[in-house]
Specification:
Structural class: mainly alpha
Distance between the termini: 38 Å
Helix content: over 70%
Number of domains: 1
Largest sheet: none
């Protein structure tokens, strides 16, 4: 299979995971591209970012039709996030590339652990409207900085932040995160494009696979218990992030890293698929 064909398949896998778990997918695609193609770090970091926009739109469409997108949260999070994204993207000029990769891994691990430790019944009570909007604004700005710095849509932090800090259900967090990710990706894409970090042929290949797979992932997600999705996502992120950090530090060879990555993906999708099958009975 050609390099372009493999890129399309990677896009399909990322799209399905994105629609299922409410993330843009760029945080997952960056390590995969680095592991499989050994492309320059900043290209792997920024090239998947434009793909995040159609991914988020396709994935959030199904949730929007079900009335699960919290519009006020999307508004305030996006207002805080857009300037944060620009600030973070400009920061890539002064932050060491290797530490960007390690920071990406830590970012993923922390999010996974948060989701594993908190079940749906432990969500905080909703604060007052003014405090609620202020918190969403602050979440948007902080996650926006990480989004621009790491070249991702921010969904890996938005989902746990919405659940743990704003008290949203997993369905609400997933759908609202996807809507926010589309806003986050646009300024980050423009800045990284200006900095020359985007390989548009790579972006095209990812996009072909992402759009239909993202829609399919969101459809499957609505068939599965919310807690099951959140738990599967948490364990996947923890394993995936740890694997990526060890690879960047040179603690184990690429072969072991690839095996761990594929096992984590298969386990997460398999666990959710079993839940979807049980839901049909």
């Amino acid at each position: 299979m050609t390099h372009f064909g493999v890129t399309v398949l990677i896009g399909a896998l990322i799209g399905f995971m994105s629609g299922l778990f409410g993330i843009g997918g760029s945080s997952i695609s960056t390590p995969i591209l680095r592991m499989l193609f050994a492309i320059p770090a900043l290209i792997a970091l920024a090239s998947p970012l434009p793909v995040t926009i159609p991914t988020a739109v396709a994935g959030s469409y199904t949730y929007w039709r079900k009335g699960l997108v919290r519009k006020e949260i999307v508004l305030w999070t996006a207002l805080g996030g857009v300037p944060g994204v620009v600030l973070g993207a400009l920061g890539t000029r002064i932050v060491a590339v290797q530490w960007l990769m390690i920071l990406t891994g830590l970012f993923v691990v922390i999010s996974g652990i948060q989701l594993i430790r908190k079940d749906s019944r432990s969500c905080v009570a909703h604060p007052k409207i003014k405090q609620f909007n202020t918190m969403a604004l602050l979440i948007g700005f902080v996650v926006g900085i990480f989004s621009g710095l790491l070249g991702n849509g921010g969904g890996l932090l938005l989902v746990p932040a919405f659940i743990l800090l704003l008290g949203l259900t997993p369905y609400e967090a997933t759908s609202s995160s996807l809507a926010c990710v589309a806003f986050y990706a646009l300024p980050g894409t423009l800045v990284h494009w200006r900095l020359g970090h985007i390989d548009w042929m790579l972006t095209l290949g990812l996009s072909i696979g992402v759009i239909p797979a993202s829609y399919l992932g969101s459809k499957v997600g609505l068939m599965v218990c919310e807690q099951r999705i959140k738990t599967a996502f948490g364990y996947f992120l923890t394993a995936f992030g740890a694997d990526f950090i060890f690879t960047q530090l040179g603690w184990w060879p690429p072969l072991i890293s690839d095996v761990v990555l594929l096992a984590a993906v298969a386990a997460a999708i398999g666990w959710v698929a079993l839940g979807a099958r049980a839901g049909k009975r």
